[in-house]
Design a protein that fits this description.
Blueprint: E1 5-8, E2 22-28, E3 32-33, E4 38-47, E5 50-54, H1 58-61, E6 67-79, E7 82-93, E8 97-101, E9 104-110, E10 116-121, E11 124-129, H2 156-188, H3 192-195, H4 200-213, H5 220-239, H6 248-255, H7 261-279, H8 286-314, H9 317-320, H10 323-336
Parallel strand pairs: 3-11
Antiparallel strand pairs: 1-2, 2-4, 4-7, 5-9, 6-7, 8-11, 9-10
Helix pairs in contact: 4-5, 4-8, 5-7, 7-8
Length: 338
Amino acid sequence: MLKKLIISSLLISSFNLATIPQVTLNVTPNNLTIGTPFSYNISLEMDNSLELIKIPLKDNFTTNTSLNFIKNKTHKTSSNNKRIIELNYELSSFDLGEQIIPTQSIILKHSITNKYSKYSLPAYPIFIASVASLDNPENLTVKISEALYFELNLNKKIIISIIICLLIFILATIYAYKFFQKRKSNFLNPPKNEIIKKDPFEEFNIEINKNYASLSTLKIKDYYVKYSEIIKLYLSYILKTNTAELTSIELFEIAKDIINEQDLRRLKFILSFSDKVKFATYIPTENENKELFEKAIDAITKLNQTYNTQAEKKETPENNINSKKDTTKWFLHLYFGY
C-alpha cells in the first residue's frame, strides 16, 4: 500500500520572497514484513533561495524502539530554479502489527533574509506483517539474504587494522618459533669438533671471568643470576646430575654426600650470598663483588683439585689415558645431548 502525504507551508519573511516548499512522504515496498528492510522517503521540492539546514537523523527514528535504523542517504538535484532533495532512510522492524514512524522535522534557511523555518513532518503509520503477502508475485520469491537484517556499524579502517595486526602477530609467532627451534637444535647438537675441546673447569674459568668483565653493563641481579648458573653448571659435572634448575638448598642436600665439608662450606657461602642478591633487596659493594668473584674461582679450583685427586686414586692405568676426555664427553652429553 503506497501512502503519500503532501505537506505545504508558508515561510514568512520580511521580504516575502520564500516560495512554498512541497514535501512528499512515502514508504516502500507496499507490503512490509518483520525483519525485512524498507525505505522511508522524504522528497522536498523548493525554490533555490531555500537551503536545507537540518534533516532527521538516527536518534529521531529510534525514539520508537521497535524500529531499527540501518542507513540513510541524500540525493540533491536542481532545475528551473527549483531545488529537489531526496532523503532516503533504510529501516526495519522486528515487531508485528501497527507501527509508527515518529514525527520528524526539517529546518530550512532563506539565503537572502537568513530566516530559519522549522517544518514538522507528521508521524507515518505502517503495518508489519509476519510473512509477505502472496497476492504480490514478487513476494513468491524466497529472499534468504533479507529474511533477517542485523545492523553492523563496522569501521572498515578498524577491521583492516585488526587484520594487519593479526597477520603481523602470526608471522612474528612463526618467526619466534623457528628462531628458538634453531637455537635449541644448535644447543643440543653442537659441532663435534668443539665437543672434544671443552673441559668443565676451563669452561668455568672462561665464563666466570667473562661474566665479571660485564658487571658494569649488567643489572646486579642479572649478574648474580649468571654467576650462580656458571657455578651450578660446573657442579653438574662433579655431582653427575643436572643442577641448573635446582635451588641452592636442594643442591646442598645432594652435594653433602659427595663433596667434603670444607669444599661444601665454600660453596654454601658464595651461593647463599648470590641468592641474597637475586631474591632480596641487598645491593653488594664493588669490593664484595670482587671478593665473591675471587672466592668462586678459589672454591671451584680447590673442588676441582679434590675431585681430580679422588678420581686418580680410583682409576686404573688403562683408564687414565682417556679419563679426561671421557669426563668431558659426559659433561657435554648431560647439557648438549651429544
